[in-house]
Design brief:
By secondary structure, the chain is of the alpha+beta class. It is 39% helix and 29% strand.
Length: 156
């Protein structure tokens, strides 16, 4: 509902989330967010914590580029302190769910090089250094990605 959209936007624009973005100086406007929110090609979710409020938000988008299929996704905390277990649960659920639904896709992830925890989590669940083929289309999947980011992929 619209309140979910508002809290999702607030989390997307939080200082911590902007710092990890491929476009950190861009504050997402309400119209821009609504256009993204109503886009049926992007699945949006949130994980409810023990206090019945969102702990982590995440999204997943499917792409077809040069007759190859890709997934991109992002997750970010809903609060300043998000339990590490919540992040692991979300990633585990995403991999199980999308591995069944999207066999043959390549899931591409970008993570700031300084975010060692996120890189370790991604490697733990099977992400590896992205292929040259994936790097060539990265500007489409994640515009603004610089050498400050690790590019990983996982074949589903």
């Amino acid at each position: 509902n619209i309140r979910d959209s508002e809290s999702f936007l607030n989390a997307r624009n939080s200082k911590e989330v902007r710092e990890m973005s491929t476009n950190p100086n861009h504050i997402i406007t309400w119209p821009e967010h609504l256009k993204w929110w109503v886009n049926d090609e992007i699945d949006k979710y949130f994980f409810i914590g023990s206090d019945n409020s969102p702990e982590v938000y995440f999204w997943v988008k499917k792409w077809e580029i040069n007759k190859k299929k890709f997934l991109t996704a992002g997750w970010f905390p809903a609060k300043k302190k998000t339990p590490f277990t919540s992040i692991l649960k979300i990633l585990d659920w995403q991999i199980k769910h999308y591995s069944k639904k999207n066999v043959g896709y390549t899931w591409v992830a970008t993570t700031k090089n300084t975010n060692k925890a996120a890189i370790a989590i991604n490697r733990r669940v099977g992400f590896v250094k992205a292929s040259d083929e994936t790097i060539k289309i990265l500007h489409i999947l994640f515009p603004g990605t610089t050498n400050e980011f690790s590019i990983l992929e996982k074949k589903l």
